Amino acid sequence: MRWTLVIPLKPLARAKSRLADTAAEGVRPGLALAFAQDTVAAALACPEVGDVAVVTDDPLAGRELAALGARIVPDEPGGGLNAALAHGARVVRSWHPAAAVAALNADLPALRPAELSRVLNSAAEFPRAFLPDAAGIGTTLLAAIPGTELRPLFGGDSRSRHHASGATELPLADVDSVRQDVDTGEDLRAALTLGVGPHTSTATAGLLIPGS
What we know:
The chain has a single domain, classed as Spore Coat Polysaccharide Biosynthesis Protein SpsA, Chain A (Alpha-Beta Complex). It contains 8 helices and 7 strands; from the N terminus they run E-H-E-H-E-H-E-H-E-E-H-E-H-H-H. The protein has helices at about 30-45, 60-70, 80-95, 115-125, 160-165, 175-180, 185-195, 200-205; strands at about 5-10, 50-55, 70-75, 100-105, 130, 140-145, 170. The protein is globular, with a radius of gyration of 16 Å. The model has no long low-confidence stretch (mean pLDDT about 95).
C-alpha cells in the first residue's frame, strides 16, 4: 500500500518554544525548519510513501519543503494542529479519493525510511492505527486506510485519545526514529544520539544540548 503523508508545520516564528533552554529565540525557527526538512526528506525516501503534503502558512518553510518534493497545502482553517491535519487529509483525498493517509509529526529529525516503512506496513493492517511517541504520552503517526476518516486527536495525551477513538496502537519495537519527536532539549539530545539528518546536524552545530 502506498501512502500520502500529511505533515503539519506551524509558522516558524512560533515553533519550538519549549527549546528555550537549548536555543535562543532567534535560533529556534531555523531548528524547526531543519527538523521539518529532515522529516520530509526521509519520508519521501520511504518506498511506501507516494506523496507528502505539508500543511503550513509559513512562506519560507513552504519554499524549502517544496524544493524537497513536498506539496504545500495552505492552512486555511487556521484552527490549530488537528484542524490543519483534518484539512490536509481532505485536500489529499480531493486529489486521490482512494488514498491511504497518515498524519506525521514535522519534528522527527532522526527519521529513517526503513523504520517508517515498517510502521506504515503495519498500519495497513488496520482501518486506523497510531504510533505513540518516545515518551509514551503523545503520538507521532496516525494512519487511515482508504475509505476511513483520519480523525486526528493530537496534542497532550493523544495516545489515550487515539486509543479511545478506536484507533489501533501499533506494537512495534525498533522504530525509535519514528517515535522520537523533538520538543525539549532532552528530546533533541535523544534524536542526536539516534543520528539526525543533514539539515538538523548543521542547525545544531555549536548548541549546548542538555545532557550532552
